Hints:
The longest helix has 32 residues, at 2-33. It contains 14 helices and five strands. It has helices spanning 2-33, 43-59, 73-79, 85-103, 117-134, 150-160, 168-179, 189-205, 208-224, 251-267, 274-291, 312-325, 335-348, 377-390, and strands at 185-187, 234-238, 244-248, 359-360, 373-374.
Amino acid sequence: MNAILFGTSSAIALAALASAAVDLTPAASAWVQRIGIGRFPDEAAWRDAAAERAMKWLLRTPTVRLTDQTRLLWLDMLRGEYRRAAIQHWQEAALVLGLTELAGFGTAASGVDVPAARFSSRMRAVLGRFFSRKFDESGGWREQPEQVDAAMLAWAVMASGLEPDRYRRAFEQTAELVLRHVGGYRYVDTIGLVCPFLAAYGLTYGREDCVDLAVRQIDAYDRHGMHPDLHLPYHAYAAGDGRPLGLCGWGRGLAWYAIGLADVWRLLPASDRRKAELEARVAKLAQAAARFQQPDGSWRWTVTRPETRADSSVTAALAWFLLRAAAASGAPGDARERARRALAYLRGVTRRSGAIDFAQGDTRDIGVYAQRFDVLPFAQGFALRAAAAAQEPEQGRRA
């Protein structure tokens, strides 16, 4: 009997130790990696380190956790609540966009001083390996996506300018996916995730219905999903009656709206009558975003509450947005300077490994916001997009 009890007690003790090891590993790893954070001699050294880290992540993207739990993580893993595959698409998309624009590929980075040929060559090799993992020989997805998050990755591939026609089948599959996903709620996330792809796909392949849908999504959100005075987006709104849902002032929600608005505006040709309307919205949103930037250059995860934590993902996306918005008539005159302050903040929260830290984790539902702040490939990618835009010569600022 004693032997049985001893054996049972030992098994329980070992299980507890194993569980504690699983729980403590992420926290201990983050603590170690934050030693010496932000110590880069200059902007160029920081940019190089951030780009190196992004290339490594593109081939092996780190897990973005769904859970905020710090104990019994193995239970979340078993229940499938630790991570979700769809989250990876927008992480990978941001990395592709940031790296290709920094390297001077595609049309989005025209005017940028192209980095050393060796970096560009390495980038092509990394992207080639990444694309071969994502797409099959026919140019379709190897694993057919089920969530519209994939649209952002499809847009990033198109924007890279690296044999985009080769992946036309995947773009067609993505367009079909987006067009059949119509729900009762309209999320601000989808403005950034979907609208740039729809506009790019429609303009490239003569699908005016897709371009029109992208603009109409932005128009509808401007009418139903924005605070009338602050001009900040709510997390969502109900399609049936237009009632706003979730937090007004959620930082990454503002970032998602800014991303979709700016990219669609830039994609539309100058002859398109809708371009001027979008430009006015870009300027108005830039004014709203500038109002809530903090003295240290960051934006908080709730932008209207300076006492909340700074969020690197919001800061990176809005730094890029302000650099783009500087070309819009009516945008803040100090938009570029504000973006530089944001980049300086990001440099100060970058680990020695080049990983930008303290980004808010993924959001689980309307009104349910992560309180875990860690590395996030999305923040890394948009920091590189902002760094690329900041290098553009002054004469190349106009869209």
